[in-house]
Write a structure and sequence with these properties.
about 325 residues, alpha+beta, four-stranded antiparallel sheet, 11 helices, 12 strands, about 25% strand, disordered N terminus
């Protein structure tokens, strides 16, 4: 049986891992395969495959011999651009940006450095897209579902340029509409991406789900940047808007599960998830009545702690009592 360790659950996708490996190899030192495997949380076998892949891409990775052999990039050689298509480049930028703002400590600075180095090795066309995304995107939590990378990059560029946009939009019920808006910020919250923009036809701020945006047209008309009410933070504004929901009955819960697992078990219509640490996240939600909210909460298949409001407690208690009362207990016959 192989003695190599299994790759950890938190290992990054191959393209992002190649970027971080490239970043490490640029340091003025030799890296052993074991050191690289530990830093990237993969097996030495994966490191060997990644080294060969970098060589195939044109990166001169040198292997030193001896008892403590290692790898490094040959000094003084021009580096070829990292060969990524548009979707891969945007996906890496999203992942690194999310990691830089994650609740998991110890990787923020590394992720920011990797994001900066990503821009250096990308072709100029993709470099602009990644730079715009880094400037325009804000993370409440890392999204589980992503929209089309080209659409996301175009919206990011419009946000950075403060350029009016026209687009088609579908409501929750599928009703189509056309919008003219001033884009402010892209925000990843819960499971999705949202565009925070000032809707010129409605003369108010709106939060648009990016996966419902279509037929985007950049008008070329640039306007001064518009400030949010009371100079609010874009991420907080979107989180509040999503948590507000359709009703006035608001609640907060601590979900005792990692945010990626919670996102699979909590419908996006119920509210917005915010990561607290590796094993917990916060759910903020609002509906029309405490009775219905208690019903929605009781249906969750995850452990949780209710933070409030207290009006929900008696409704949750009645649900629990009815469930217990409906259980029919049987005893085995004697003998």
């Amino acid at each position: 049986m192989s003695s190599e360790p299994r790759e950890t659950r938190g290992a990054r996708d191959p393209a992002a891992r190649l970027l971080e490996l490239l970043s490490l190899l640029q340091a003025p030192r030799d890296w052993t395969g074991a050191d690289l495997a530990e830093r990237l949380r993969v097996t030495p076998r994966t490191i060997r495959r990644d080294i060969e892949h970098l060589r195939e891409l044109g990166y001169p990775v040198q292997a030193t011999q001896g008892n403590i052999g290692g790898y490094r990039l040959v000094a003084g050689t021009a580096m070829p651009p990292l060969l990524l298509d548009d979707d891969e480049a945007v996906a890496i930028a999203i992942g690194l940006r999310a990691a830089a703002t994650a609740a998991v400590s110890g990787i923020e600075d590394t992720s920011l450095r990797a994001l900066a180095k990503l821009e250096q090795v990308l072709p100029s066309r993709l470099r602009r897209r990644v730079s715009h995304l880094a400037e325009a995107a804000t993370f409440v939590s890392q999204p589980v579902q992503g929209p089309d990378a080209e659409l996301l990059a175009a919206l990011a560029a419009a946000c950075v340029a403060h350029e009016k946009i026209r687009f088609g939009y579908s409501s929750t019920r599928g009703a189509p509409s056309r919008r003219l808006a001033e884009p402010k910020r892209l925000v990843a919250a819960g499971r999705r991406w949202y565009l925070l923009a000032y809707d010129l036809d409605r003369a108010d701020w709106r939060t648009f789900r990016v996966d419902r945006i279509n037929a985007l047209h950049r008008t070329g008309a640039r306007v001064p940047e518009r400030e949010l009410p009371d100079r609010q933070d874009a991420a907080a504004y979107v989180a509040d808007a999503l948590a507000a929901g359709p009703g006035d009955c608001r609640a907060e819960l601590i979900i005792h599960a990692p945010i990626d697992r919670a996102a699979e078990g909590v419908p996006s219509s119920l509210g917005v998830l915010e990561q607290l640490d590796e094993g917990r996240c916060r759910l903020r939600t609002a509906v029309d009545s405490p009775e219905y909210l208690a019903f929605r909460i009781a249906a969750l298949r995850l452990d949780y702690t209710l933070l409030g409001p207290p009006e929900i407690v008696p409704h949750l208690r009645r649900i629990a009592e009815r469930a217990l009362g409906a259980i029919v207990t049987t005893q085995s016959p004697d003998g």
